[in-house]
């Protein structure tokens, strides 16, 4: 709709229509009109709605070869380490490994438990469900999924191989060290 003002200038008064961008198949909520250009990254509010990407891809198992070999031969250990960190020590690595082992003979239903902890990890760090749903990844690529989860925790400063008590000890150690360049001398 075009309006003509008293001085003879024309202005467009039609309401602005914004179409939310689409990423993959999911509709991404758009921000207020004009908040950022199409080639700019999403705002923090949009990022919270969308989710953050994983720090490594699903098939980057070679990034941590020790964990990849351990997971290939004993996925229960990697699962136990992840469970202990995500449960903040409530589930020990030994108990998590034992739960995983018990579910293997039961028609390979350990993927259900693996998907549950992957979902917990995604919620904790607001990660996107990519490249597939948690259950699908743990059903068809359980070792790659476990390796990716291990790397994600490690990249965020939580080393699952150290366990929850190891993480707490590391946190305590960093709190008690004096800053560099300072000493007790006068």
TrEMBL record:
Question: In which domain of life is the source organism classified?
Answer: Eukaryota
Among InterPro entries, the record links this protein to: PLAC_motif_containing
State where composition is biased (Polar residues): 1-16
Name any one Pfam family assigned in the record.
PLAC8
Q: Give the start-end ranges of region Disordered.
A: 1-46
Kindly state which keywords UniProt assigns to this record, in alphabetical order: Membrane, Transmembrane, Transmembrane helix
Q: Which residues cross the membrane?
A: 98-117
Q: What protein is this chain from? A: (wild Malaysian banana) hypothetical protein
């Amino acid at each position: 709709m075009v309006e003509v003002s008293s001085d003879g200038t024309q202005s467009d008064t039609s309401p602005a229509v914004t179409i939310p961008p689409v990423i993959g198949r999911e509709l991404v909520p758009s921000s207020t009109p004009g908040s950022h250009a199409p080639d700019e990254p999403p705002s923090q509010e949009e990022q919270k709605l969308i989710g953050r990407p994983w720090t490594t891809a699903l098939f980057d198992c070679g990034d941590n070869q020790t964990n990849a070999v351990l997971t290939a031969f004993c996925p229960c250990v990697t699962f136990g380490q992840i469970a202990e960190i995500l449960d903040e020590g409530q589930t020990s690595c030994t108990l998590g490994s034992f739960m995983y082992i018990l579910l293997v003979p039961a028609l390979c239903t350990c993927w259900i438990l693996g998907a549950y902890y992957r979902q917990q990890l995604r919620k904790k760090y607001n990660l996107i469900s990519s490249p597939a749903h948690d259950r699908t990844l743990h059903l068809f690529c359980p070792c790659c999924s476990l390796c990716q989860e291990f790397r994600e925790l490690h990249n965020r400063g939580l080393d699952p191989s150290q366990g929850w008590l190891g993480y707490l000890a590391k946190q305590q150690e960093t709190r008690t060290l004096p800053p560099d360049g300072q000493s007790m001398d006068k």
